[in-house]
Design a protein that fits this description.
Aspartate Aminotransferase, domain 2; Aspartate Aminotransferase, domain 1; 2 domains; 3-stranded antiparallel beta sheet; alpha/beta; globular
Length: 365
Amino acid sequence: MQFTDLKSQYAALKPAIDARIQRVLDHGQYIMGPEVKELESALAAFTGVRHCITVASGTEALLIALMALDLQPCDEVITTPFTFAATAEMIVLAGARPVFVDIEPDTCNIDVALIEAAITPRSKAIMPVSLYGQVADMAEINAIAARHGLAVIEDAAQSFGALYQGRRSCALSTFGATSFFPSKPLGCYGDGGALFTDDERLAQAAREIRVHGQSARYTHTRLGVGGRMDTLQCAIVLAKFERFDWELQSRAELGARYQRQLAGAGFEAVTVRPDRNSVWAQMTVFVDARQAVQTALQAQGIPTAVHYPKPLHQQPAYAAYGKADACPHSVSASQRVLSLPMSADLSEADLDRVIAALAATRVAA
């Protein structure tokens, strides 16, 4: 069993993917070829945002968004410690300081009730993470940001395609930043990502930053990076995008089946709020004795993963930005979360097999 079944996806899309790749090989425009703008137009229309800027990775998307905000060395960005390192990593690399706020214990997304207390005169932005495929409480976050004059960057690396109060992830804030890493809900065959914004000035800044700060060839208007998304990767995402609506529906149905069967087996999955959905980038449950459960599932040929085993404020690289005993819900989640096989092409038979093996661990205990 595959943790993320990319092989079945490729088999279903092989003619379209191969044709898209061949087209790039034929025209030879491997950097900023026509597929780049084609993908940006398609994704902007899908999300309902005026501007989409493709970039080299989801990590690069965060960095470019932060750079476009002209962060200063004393600035602070409020975020969650229960996320992949790139979230805080880019804040530090952009010259700012991450301020960690704890998560909700049931959704594992940032707890909006704790954000306002973390705001100081040095705060510049809030960076919520739409973890596991579910958007954070963006309406409340945007309201807090508006009261304090802050920007909001949605780290939507795991939630592209998700809905929140009828609007798409990446269309909910100053910037939305997503990833096309192969295992994401919409992925390429390498690294890739995109930024989304309705702000013309910020969009222009992001476009310049991704090409070494150039406003015209060899005219470096601002500090930038080499942050372009390759034409080949854009072509692959375009091919996959053709059946993305079907994949979102499949993920929704499989997620609902997982939720029903997990509850029936006595397991608690991450909660999805009623005003939004999840694209189930990960199907994550809370378990006790996690290592024993993983070992038992592995013996049955069922792969698992932990997203994430240690919150960022307890990581050596970020220890200076928070006390080790802070954010107790993040600490608790890091000790109990377990991600199960999930992808649009997961068969119901394999899903049922996962549940049966998981239920057996409870009986054995």
